[in-house]
Specification:
This protein is mainly beta. Helix content is 5%, strand content 38%. The N and C termini lie far apart (63 Å).
């Protein structure tokens, strides 16, 4: 097929690239109560605010540690995401869940790869209210 397209003048030249835009993203923060006590084991889910992604998480779910800190780790996503929804749930049931929509800004890498959108780090803290 490539041969036929080349004969017709429709083939790619060296600058032709395949794939989809991709980026790396990391989301971190701390979860506390109104008295700034750590909320341990709260579950954090990160979803794209873009409805085309559906309701599925775009990063691995993670849990707050004994200091209330969470970190999704650095993950590659299939394309750039302009904003994310971060959802926090207290699985122990003592606190109300919370969520926030956050804009994502990418720091471009110095590369000629036109598909690499860059890398982003989002830090978002939460203060949960007792039920």
């Amino acid at each position: 097929m490539t041969f036929v397209l080349g004969i017709l003048g429709l083939g790619c030249v060296n600058s032709c690239k395949y794939g989809v835009p991709h980026a790396t993203i990391q989301v971190t923060g701390q979860i506390t109560d109104s008295d700034y006590n750590a909320v341990e084991a709260a579950r954090v889910t990160v979803k794209s605010a873009d409805p085309r992604w559906g309701d599925r998480p775009i990063l691995p779910r993670t849990y707050a540690n004994e200091w209330g800190q969470y970190d999704t780790g650095i993950s590659e996503i299939g394309c750039d995401v302009d904003s994310i929804d971060i959802l926090v749930e207290d699985l122990a049931g003592a606190y109300q869940g919370d969520s926030v929509r956050v804009g994502v800004t990418y720091k471009r890498k110095n590369t000629d790869d036109g598909w690499d959108v860059g890398e982003a780090h989002v830090r978002q803290n939460f203060k949960l209210k007792k039920k």
